[in-house]
């Protein structure tokens, strides 16, 4: 059903393009390579209060501040969530963060920059798909939320717990918010 809705949305969004020249057509985030402009369109749809510029945005997902930066020249994007000061991370904690980067943080990662510990999702920009971006955002929020406990991106877990269902519902919520595409 979701595929049919997405297909219908793409077809509907293409109709006005028939009457416009290529220069007049707005970029559709579901068609063609991802660009900074398309990424910012998606961000505006999932957070109407996001502060968006040409290639960067500050938004909030589930009360967690997220910064997104796109660099078309380098063909990269980065979503970041500040977690805490890095000045007091000890060897044991750093080892745990590296272990999480290997097995439970998934597409998000723990990183240190400018004296802070961050949750980050870094991806080539042009091949980035709408759903990958939303999943990466949620994983980044989840590594920040689960810091100090599960150290998990939340998308894939082993065992019979509730985490997979919680993550699936969160992803569906973001997909619903951005379905106007």
- Major sheet description: 6 strands, antiparallel
CATH topology: Yope Regulator, Chain: A
Q: Give helix % range.
A: 25-40%
Unreliable residue stretches: 1-22
Instruction: Indicate the overall shape.
Output: globular
Number of strands: 6
Describe this structure in a few short sentences.
Helices cover 38% and strands 23% of the residues.
Please supply descriptive tags for the structure shown above.
single chain; 181 residues; alpha+beta; Yope Regulator, Chain: A; 6 strands; globular
Q: What's the SSE blueprint?
A:
Elements: H1 2-14, H2 36-46, E1 51-52, E2 56-61, E3 64-71, E4 76-85, H3 91-103, E5 108-113, E6 116-124, H4 130-145, H5 163-177
Antiparallel strand pairs: 1-2, 2-3, 3-4, 4-6, 5-6
Helix pairs in contact: 4-5
Protein model, in words:
- The chain has 181 residues and is an alpha+beta fold.
- The chain has one domain (29-177): Yope Regulator, Chain: A.
- It has helices spanning 2-14, 36-46, 91-103, 130-145, 163-177, and strands at residues 51-52, 56-61, 64-71, 76-85, 108-113, 116-124.
- A 6-stranded antiparallel beta sheet has the order 1-2-3-4-6-5.
